[in-house]
Amino acid sequence: MVLRNYWKSRHKSGRFPTLCWIRPGPAALFWFCVTRLACGAGTVGEAKSVVQKDAEFDVTYNDTVTSVNQTIYAFNHTISRNKTEGVRVTVDVLQEQLESPILFVIRQKQAVMSFQVPLILRGLYQRKYPYKHVGRTLCQPPTRAASETQFFFVDVSTLSSQGTNYQLRVSRVESFTLQTDKKFSFTASPSQPQFFKYVFPDGVDTVIVKVNSDVNFPCSVMSVQDIQCPVYDLDNNVAFIGMYQTMTKKGAITVQRKDFPSNSFYVVVVVKTEDEACGGPLRFYPLRGDVLIDAGNRTKDLNVVVSPAINSEKYVIGMLFCLGIFLSFYVLTLLVACVENKRMKRREVFENPPDISPAETASLLGKNGDGIMTQSLFLCTRCSFSHLFGLSAVALHALACIPKLTRALWSYSILC
């Protein structure tokens, strides 16, 4: 009890002396510093300005951005359930040397896209390729309403204290939805990928997507992806989802309706930063990671066409046609064998005549070789008269004499 009371009294006595150390001078200094910090923060907040503009399609905006001012462009467009309209954002940075990149953020109703300019794309061995001209197509999520007006915003900001000039243009993609058996031509680059939408028509379950180009390089990638946001349309993420194929001049992918619940899909075409994936040459660059490499002109002209694949009926017709060709060879071989067999039998008959006795030969030939002609004429005359006058007995006798006449002819030919 004595110890516990002593501890309590010591504890109580120890709290009050600590308060005596806080004097009016340090407290005033602390309050002054906090006030100045708050005022400084307020000053910085007041200096940074955010400007929102109502923007329009197909208009090029030339503006300047710094770390203290931010610009927001507001766009609106109408989305229909039966018609999909593509929207493309194109950005150009006009300055050669940049202290910091410009960040563009596109805010949509159901998606957000962001990219910086210059756009840095990595290649083999972590090489860095900057691109100051960037074009991206916005993802278009499906709508349930028959017609709906949606807003989207483009935010432009940077951390650079120096002013950076840029150009911004938002336009509509006219041929965003591909048509069956209709070729569409376009241009793509590593910083300007392209993707289009295709909807399965009624009665078509399988289609073939073909992408063609007149040149081998630069290497490119074609991809088929489901209708969802975001769309992976850059060299460093195009292989994350769906089906893809690297290509030089020609590429094709077979797509089935059952693989896409929405009965539609995106066709994405991306140009790679390097040609090594397509077997092309890889130029020697310094391997320092902080060096930005100029990739040069890697623009490629391509065209895409979606055509229906052959159905089961065509498969059956093709199989029956091939089977018919094989069967025709067998039938032809059988006919040739039959004809050759008959021809060989006839040759054997002529080469090996039937044997007749000497008495029959003498009776048919008589005493000289001319008897055979007399006998043959006599028999033919009897057969002719029997046929003309209808004498059945004589006709039967003539028919019975024909084998003897044949043997006589064979013998005569041998003797002569």
UniProtKB/TrEMBL annotation:
<comment type="similarity">
    <text>Belongs to the SID1 family.</text>
</comment>
<keyword id="KW-0812">Transmembrane</keyword>
<feature type="transmembrane region" description="Helical">
    <location>
        <begin position="315"/>
        <end position="339"/>
    </location>
</feature>
<dbReference type="InterPro" id="IPR025958">
    <property type="entry name" value="SID1_TM_fam"/>
</dbReference>
<keyword id="KW-0472">Membrane</keyword>
<dbReference type="Pfam" id="PF13965">
    <property type="entry name" value="SID-1_RNA_chan"/>
</dbReference>
<keyword id="KW-0732">Signal</keyword>
<protein>
    <submittedName>
        <fullName>SID1 transmembrane member 2</fullName>
    </submittedName>
</protein>
<keyword id="KW-1133">Transmembrane helix</keyword>
<keyword id="KW-0325">Glycoprotein</keyword>
